[in-house]
Amino acid sequence: MLKANHPVCLVQRHWRARRSWTCLQVRLKVSVATDREAVETFNPVNVQLLSSALHKQIFPKNSKEPCDIATRQEYARQHLELQHIWGKSTDKIPDISFQLPKLTGRDLEEHFLRIGIEQSGSYMQKAKEIAVTDLPQQPKEWSRQSGWTRYDPKSGKKEKVDHPLENILTFDVETAVAVGPQPIMATAASPQAWYSWVSPYLFGESDHPNHLIPFGKTGNERIVIGHNVGFDRARILEEYNTSSSKLGFLDTMSMHIAVSGLCSQQRPAWMSEIKRRNIGKVSTSSNSDTHSVMDSVSQNMDVGSNSFFDVSALNSLKDVVKFHCNMDMDKSSRNILVDGQLEDVQQNFEELIRYCATDVDMTHRVYKALWPKFHENCPHPVSFAGMLQMGNSILTVNEHWEEYLANSVAKHKELEDMLDVKLQELAENARALVGKDEEWRKDPWLSQLDWFVNPRQRKLKGQPKWYKDAYDTKADKLKISTRSRIAPLLLRLKWQDHPIHYLTEHGWCFKIPIARADEAGNTKIVSMDEDYFYYKIPHKDGETANCGNPIAKNYLHFFEEGVLSSEYDAAREALELNAKSAYWISSRERILGQYVVWDDDVKDMGLTKRPGHGKNGIILPQMVTMGTVTRRAVEKTWLTASNAKANRIGSELKSMVQAPPGYKIVGADVDSEELWISSIIGDAQFGFHGATALGWMTLQGSKSEGTDLHSKTAQILGISRNKAKVFNYARIYGAGAKYATSLLMQYNQDLDLDEAKQKAAELYLSTKGEKERSVRNQFKRAFWHGGTESYMFNALEDIALCKEPRTPILGCAITDALKPKYAGTQFLTSRINWVVQSSAVDYLHMMIVSMSHLIDRYNIDARFMLSVHDEVRYLSSEKDQHRTALALQIANLWTRALFSYKLGIPNLPQAVAFFSAVDIDHVLRKEPNMHCLTPSNPNKIEEGKSYSVYETVAELEEQAKVNGSKHLLDNERRTLASQLPDTDIIRQLEELNQLLPESRMCELDYLHAQMFREFKPNKNPTKRGGRATEVKVSKKSAVKKIAQEEVDEAETDESITVGSKDDDRLLYLKYEDGTMPRSSVRVIQSKVPTFKRSNEDSSSLFIPTGVLDAYVRPDPTPVRSSSSYRSMKKPSNPTTINWISA
């Protein structure tokens, strides 16, 4: 049971950068030690923490807590009690203690800085060097000889070389559609020389195109810069090896997205604005949707002046060059590569090689413009090193890959033929009703077909129009696909056991006799006739969207759940066949297009040749390492691959990635990664783990007891726990009640809109709480209060809406397009999502950089394979599989610990310190016990194994006894991290710490106010909340400036105060009806003025002379006037304006 223990005050002193002295007060609950003589520690809300043996190895000995910790603990108890959590039983986790690798610095912060610098190696220095260096001029003539040619700009000499000689290169590859994915030409440039590479196949020196581009094994660390460089990397010979090539790839597309990328909400408005600027006008008829988005955005910001349109661009090289370099690119030559044959490429070689070289030149110019901005946005070396690691993904396959492709194609063809036969049978059965008008008119499905028979038609004489339209006269057979309009009718589909019906305005609907209308529940009627009411089949995009095809992929789960059905066996079989093919149909192009290189074409893959028909292959995922504004990686196939399902052809895709003989795939999924990140940011306001309801449920909630977050949501909404997960993650990412309403109506067809809205409102009231929308309170801010997640949402919004949003751990900045100074308060959903997902990217980068450090430090035979958001996989030799597993556990422990440490909580819950299990497997799959049985794979795949941290430690202890090792990871070697000069490290730490606030803990009054549903504001202007953007203001203090951000009432419904770097006091205007002036004004009088309304003009408000030296208008230029009043225009009719201190 939860209970508070007597506090023991330990007053200690501990120095931290930019932190003050304080006293430390800790509550400990001690239990009997295990055989390792470790101590189990529990915090005030009974969250089990790391044992003291592990804690002292990770956190500083004299970590501090605030003197008011007792009050914070009491507030946490009250909050948990209000949320019906206090007193719930919790499970005790077995304690563990073992010798960890010693930190390379004095604390976690310094440790990660050191290993980040170490893993960046010389790549960082090279990246800085090339950013201030120009490329030489391009050669006037290009060689056609195969292989590499080097062009010396000083001597004008060109010579054949085996590979580029320099360690810094900008690189671009060209392929031709007619040839395949293999490279046919490439260019590269360094500050010293230009290079060209020509495939031996291009001019007939080879009879096959399977040639890769050699970069040589120089043993040096080299960087290769490219735009979407993952595509170019997949054509480099040395990358097809299980050992590292020491090539580091820098992607200017990823750098641009991280600095100036657009979120999905912004793209339509951005494209419309760019067209308006370039053309002057855009057709409203062809771009109505885009304009509506544009207009809604424009209402809340001064479009074209300091807006996100001016600081962002799309991601293509052409767009990026225009944005960063203000240069236009001609990409027309690319058409030859896309549409032409090999002969066309040969004839236009000079044009195409220059086109390729121009891409290199422009990529370098973009890089020079981007690097300073990127380094400022992502200043921590761990972010840079993590990006390099992510760009080195590798997947190993064997002969089973080709079998998988053949089996999937064949099975799909078999089912497709069977489906065609079924649909043709149904069509022929329907055709037999020609002339039997009474029968087909009574049929609720067939009556919707066009039964008109044209007496003058020669072909298919006497056949109805619907049959004639479906008949392929050239093939002399019926061709009816599941995408055709008549297929659902021939299949006689039912929705909730009612016939479906197509209405032009509303898409696919279902109809119910008027006499039985109560069977529709609360579903909204969209049409009616004499006999039936018509109801729309729901769409994932909500009530306004129409169902275009009820057999489409998005509706398969309705078929599986019995909502979509048919009473005819043939129809049910057809639906089942369609369901089995759905995954393959949507994914086959990407899967069949995978660029696989086999050991027949590469002399050395670092793998032993397979006997007989066996062979080794490697796939390099063409990763965009920072492919979204949250800096998440993007890749079309492997990062979106589903898990194997028994009724999905080809869904065993991931399991076709198989470890070569002598190797294992070692990996783990981070448990509730983004949920934990969100909750700990909320807990940080109290200063300890599990202080908020969300934090406690994340750490201690039990599925069996119904006290975890997903179970709570399921109870509120009356849905399954699995479905509740969707609602929870969507809410944490910033989705509102509107989205929850739409989702509820999808999951429960009986809900009408009003009932769904009510349930969604109940969910958000219980979780987010009430919103204090006025800023006329002692905290000078709007905030959530009284919900299980109020603390978390306030903390996330504090980060998302501050002047310079940065992730709280590594200090990575948000893209310019979402910064408040350019986007106002628009796109709050995307910004909340950015805080969570970008912090999760920090987590991933920290973990893989920690792994890389441990692999080097303990000489572990393993390398990074792939990361899919919260999953990581490594290719490890069998002899080092358990060392790799323990290294993963330690990397996760360090990463979680730094999150806690940076958020001001110098401890870590035992529940999240380690992975619940690390999988050691011979194939890539979600769980090692999945057999991956599918229609295309009838044979079980042998199971792998999962190891908890306890089992891994036990395995390595046995090995240590045999080997005589002092450490579980074996004997270590000294690495660069521990040798870096302290003075440089301290200086860099201070620079990084200046980017983030000193503390995430908020003042007690504000902590208390977030707890309750009922909040009564205390209008004391000297009080403030915890936001970094707010300052104390005295009513009597002289006001020098007014600063104000635009308000997005539709999305945030709150006023935002903008701070400044200097000490000027801030004041802003707010109309009584809640809206605000659209431009800033400056006050030159210290007294708070009063405003009178004009009798002559009801839309004008008059301000005494001397109060303002500029009036609010679209053009903020100050205007002087001799008149005694200045007017401030506003379209609506406010009665007064109030001064509000901020």
Automatic annotation (TrEMBL):
Example GO biological process: mitochondrial DNA replication
Stated name of the protein: DNA-directed DNA polymerase
Location of the DNA-directed DNA polymerase family A palm domain: 650-880
Composition skew (Polar residues), residue ranges: 1130-1142
GO CC terms: gamma DNA polymerase complex
Keywords from the UniProt entry: DNA-directed DNA polymerase, Nucleotidyltransferase, Transferase
GO MF, any single term: 3'-5' exonuclease activity
Ranges where the record places region Disordered: 1117-1142
Enzyme class: transferase
Protein source organism: Umbelopsis ramanniana AG
Pfam families cross-referenced by the UniProt entry: DNA_pol_A (PF00476), DNApol_Exo (PF18136)
InterPro entries linked to this entry: DNA-dir_DNA_pol_A_CS, DNA-dir_DNA_pol_A_mt, DNA-dir_DNA_pol_A_palm_dom, DNA/RNA_pol_sf, DNApol_Exo, RNaseH-like_sf
EC numbers, comma separated: 2.7.7.7
